[in-house]
Amino acid sequence: MSVLSAAYDATDVYLVLGDSSDQTLVADMFNPIFAGSGVDALLLPVPVPEEPASLGNFVRTAMLAKNIKGFWVSHARQSAALHGLDHCSKLARMAGAVNAIRRNADGKLEGALFDGVGFIASLIYFGISYADKRVLILGGGGAAASIAASLARPEDAVCAAEIAIYDDTSGPALAAAQRIASATGTPVHVVGSNDPAGFDLVVNASSLGQLPADPLPCDVSRMEAHACVLDTVMQNQPTALLRASRARGLQAQPGFEMRVQQAHLYLDFFGFTNAAGMLRRDASALRQQIYPQALQHEIHPQLPSDSQFSPFTFSSLS
Q1: Do the strands 87-88 and 68-73 form a parallel or antiparallel pair, or are they unpaired?
Q2: 37 CB-near residues (< 8 Å, 6+ apart)
Q3: What's the pLDDT score for residue 314?
Q4: What is the value of pTM for the model shown?
Q5: 16-27 residue pLDDT tens
Q6: CA 224 to CA 227: how far, in whole Å?
Q7: Do residue 126 and residue 226 come from a single domain?
Q8: Preceding amide of 238 cis, omega within 30
Q9: With 80 as the cut, is the pLDDT of residue 5 above it?
């Protein structure tokens, strides 16, 4: 069956907003989950403008179609997608970004943000501590703000000691840092240097590394001997940053697990509770699907409980 035929047959259609290969990856992740759990839905990538007013107009116009029920939002559109929504989660307001939008029964548009929660869960999966650690986040977009907000928000009295965001553009990182610091009490600030010296955890939430010719997002030789690295770039893995960090003997992990750990939150948000439960119980098929061949051997064995999966549900994040 062609994609177009499937779209006509599907009861619900969801769109991935963006303009990159990241959209295709998201669709490739969730369409098999829909099919495997009996959900009559289809997720399709759609290139849309980044300008907030244009993006907001597209979202509201698309929602006039009765079978379009919501949107997944790619990293480059997360901040812009916040504008024009009727409601959003506390975490989304704090970060100033959303990566999921749905239409509620009253017709209102609601947004939520799961990147940071998936990030925290991936740290737990890898055995990387962030409690009372100094964290450097490279990048100033929606994904960086989401990660910063989740690291700063005390959960069971656990949060980072300090979060520095390096943004080499005139983006919204400063405003996000101020909102997060004010809401959580955790020191969060924007820095003018990407020097990783003195930090316990270094996170690449920028686009550097997507292309083989990209420069490293920071000087790996300046990292502390105990530092851990997580690279959220999905393309070209293992990236040059991961390879260089591992060559120094540092624990360095790709961002695929971050995607796995938030997948059930999307499903919960859009009302697919059975599919979300299935994924929480066993995500091994999803890991095998999205981890590249070069990293397949790094997948942890699935435990017979949810102990290797995000403990959060959407209701706990609202």
Answers
A1: unpaired
A2: 272, 274, 275, 278
A3: 47
A4: 0.89
A5: 998 766 667 889
A6: 5
A7: yes
A8: yes
A9: no
